[in-house]
Structure formats: structure tokens, C-alpha cells
Amino acid sequence: MKICVFCGSGVGNNSVYADAAHELGALLAKSGHTLVYGGGNIGLMGILADSVLGNRGEVIGIIPDFLMKKEVGHTGLTKLEIVPSMHERKRRMADLADAFLVLPGGWGTLDETAEILTWKQLELIRQPVGLLNINGFFDTLLTQMEIMVKEGFLKQENLDILNVANSPEKVLKAIIP
């Protein structure tokens, strides 16, 4: 399978995030899955890609040209596609993906997560979506989603499409049939 992972261009302030990205990369490679991601060589993105590659796996990166010009593109990937915009990046990653995973990150990761969950809710995509809640990183976001259900802005069945787990192994099992 091709697993699209959204994650941070930073590493965070706790080594558990980098450790989880490294573990996930090894699991993906050893299971024969291909990583599809944002194409960066920095932060959790770089750690994840390097882990897959270091375990003899395949990695497809999709990066907008303006980020490539900033020299944050990973040039050692199995394949690196350069696209014109952030929107095209998300569309291309979605086109390639058999499943989606979300790791900790910032605004970009939050944007990608919201968009892919919206596409899933609208049935524009059918792939499973998993959220790796390492160190309780997403606890308050998950609480906000529950409030959205309680207040009538999100249907429970649309919240239920998100597979949440607290370890790389568990989240992979949740999204891979």
C-alpha cells in the first residue's frame, strides 16, 4: 500500500515525536508499504523518510516548487515530484494514497488533516484516515471534535471515520485491512 503521512517540518520539544516517526518509517518499510509525504528533508518529515529509506523502503515525496527553491526538498528519495502549489501537493498525495496517517505537526499538518477529513466526509475519497496520538499531542483537538459533535456541527459518524491510536504499530493496524 501507499501510505500518505502528514507530519511536521519541525521535530517538536520532546524526543518521543522523532522516535515515533523513526519507528513508523521502519514499520512501513518492513511491511512493504510505500511512504507518500510532503517531500521535505527537515523535521519529522525528514526523520520519517530517512527511516523508510534506511530500512530499504520506497518513498515518494511531493513538494511545491517554492519549497524546493528554499532547499528543504529531500533529494535522496525513491521519487520526488515538484508541483506548483500547496493545493496541488495535497491533491497529488491524495491521488497516490491508499490510506492516510497524521503525526504531530503545526499549521500545515492541521490544514492537511482538516482537508483530508473533509474530503472523506464528503466522500471525495474513501481511504482510511489514522491519527497517531503520541504523548497525548492531539488530545485537545480530539476534545474539540467531540464538542463539534455535541454542539451539532459535526455528525458522530463523521468523527468516527478517524482512527486514533497511540503507537505507530496500533495506528497502522487501524488503517490497513
Structure description:
There is one protein chain. With 177 residues, the chain is α/β, with parallel strands linked by helices. Helices cover 47% and strands 18% of the residues. The chain contains eight helices and seven strands; from the N terminus they run βαβαβαβαβαβααβα. It has helices at residues 15-30, 43-54, 65-69, 86-96, 107-121, 139-150, 156-159, 168-175; strands at residues 2-6, 34-37, 59-64, 79-83, 99-102, 129-132, 162-165. The chain has a seven-stranded parallel sheet with strand order 4-3-2-1-5-6-7, sandwiched between helices. The radius of gyration is 15 Å and the shape is globular. It starts with a strand and ends with a helix.
Topology:
Blueprint: E1 2-6, H1 15-30, E2 34-37, H2 43-54, E3 59-64, H3 65-69, E4 79-83, H4 86-96, E5 99-102, H5 107-121, E6 129-132, H6 139-150, H7 156-159, E7 162-165, H8 168-175
Parallel strand pairs: 1-2, 1-5, 2-3, 3-4, 5-6, 6-7
Helix pairs in contact: 1-2
